[in-house]
Amino acid sequence: MKLSLSVLILFISTSAFGQDFENYFSDSTMRVDYYHAGTKGQESISLDKVYYEGSWAGSKKQLVDNLNRGDYLLRVFDLETNALIYSHGYSTMFNEWQTTDEAIGGTTRTFNETVRFPFPKKRVMISISRRDKFVASGQKLAFREVFATTIDPNDSTEINREPRHRYPSYDVVNNGPPETKVDIVIIGDGYTKQDMEKFRNGAKHFAEVLLNTSPFKEHRADFNIRAIEVESAESGIDKPDKNVWKNTALNSTYNTFGSARYVLIDDNRTLRDIAGIVPYDYITVLINDDRYGGGGIYNLYTTTYTKSDAPGQEWQMDYVYVHEFGHCFAGLGDEYYTSQVSYNEFYPKGAEPWEPNLTSIASRESIKWKEFIAPETPVPTPWEKSEFDSLEALRGKLDRLAPDYYQKREPLIKQTDEILKKTEFSGKVGAFEGAGYVSKGLYRPSADCRMFSLSLVGFDPVCAAAIDDVIAANTR
């Protein structure tokens, strides 16, 4: 069964909001795994398995996603009444991979992915739609349906209820019932039995790092954090560029999409089986390795390395953890543009990014964060971009894996930090050119932010507000 976009929009406007949780759902979780296949410009989705999981951790009041974030949108409809009873925006490894040279060259790949929602009491239709990159001027980016199927929660042949992993779990932070809190689960990869105390210390450390960073700090009481002790056969994770291969529980790896520092996980099914041991909204994976790296995808998961490869550089792990969590939690885009990435036209010319902290529109009247801009701040906002770019070009020539990398990088980092601190409109919200991996044509809200520079600087007001919105959606 398929529904046209116009019908879907009608459902949103007439029956989407304020649905009674008890009318449609039980207090448990339905997990739907599917295969996402294709290449550049092509995609298809096919059903894998449907699972029954434990208690629903999400809000029981905010069932429809009003944030308009993510490359994909899940919608769940009650089949009998056609009422929209749940929706959720998210992004995927697949849509990132589609911008790589491999996909552009015509290679076809398949990814296993997951959507989750409260366990329905009656038959439902689930719809997955993808956001169009190009729409008419002034219009919000629309979604087009790419997959739909019906699920009967009372058909035992459709729902997988078999017990799965039984790793130990415990509370790191417990502030109350899951449905009124943001619930984070911390999982480790590359930790052997002998490494487990290191994992426990890491889980505690990174929980405190996050909750001591604004605006999370101001909402500390709104978070629950749980940890699951997952044993791997070997310490560390894969580094394909060094021909290093490890036998680990989650099969996480550096060199994702050809980027030495990008750490993602191929084995989605195992990750979800393990995470489902506890109620969760967001997944964090700690990597027992010392190469600088991590990753974060909106409403998927975040990863970070946990051992420093050089004395004095331990702060970088804290930077990576919070930066990547900004992607996963709030859908914040990368504001930097000088570091090498594997994407090609991640933000096509002429398309307005959906991310709340990136824009192609440098007009005071039309920019998405106009309410944050003071009357005296010019738009676009001038800054010492040429000087900054020249220093970043020098840093880009350094070998990140060389023994003297940090020694050579340090003076360049200090000089760029000074530029960002002393520029005329430092600390102000405006439209600073250079963002989203491109030097020209995209703008960020502030000269500096945790999503821009490699530093422990805080989130700018636009990013902080975007984070606040997600906290509110999870806790009301």
Summary tags:
476 residues; 3 domains; 10 helices; 6-stranded mixed sheet; globular; 4-stranded mixed sheet; disordered N terminus; Immunoglobulin-like; alpha+beta; Collagenase (Catalytic Domain)
Description:
- With 476 residues, the chain is an alpha+beta fold.
- The chain has 3 domains: 5-160, Immunoglobulin-like, CATH 2.60.40; 169-330, Collagenase (Catalytic Domain); 370-451, no CATH class.
- Helices cover 23% and strands 25% of the residues.
- It has helices spanning 5-15, 21-24, 93-97, 101-104, 196-211, 268-275, 315-330, 385-396, 405-422, 461-475, and strands at residues 25-39, 42-53, 72-78, 84-90, 109-120, 124-131, 143-151, 159-160, 169-173, 182-189, 223-228, 252-253, 264-265, 282-287, 294-297, 301-305, 432-435, 438-444.
- It has a 6-stranded mixed β-sheet. The protein has a 4-stranded mixed β-sheet with strand order 5-1-2-8. The chain has a 4-stranded antiparallel β-sheet with strand order 4-3-6-7, covered by helices on one side.
- A hairpin with a 2-residue loop joins strand 1 (25-39) and strand 2.
- The two termini are 33 Å apart.
- The relative contact order is 0.12.
- The model is unreliable at 1-18 (pLDDT under 50).
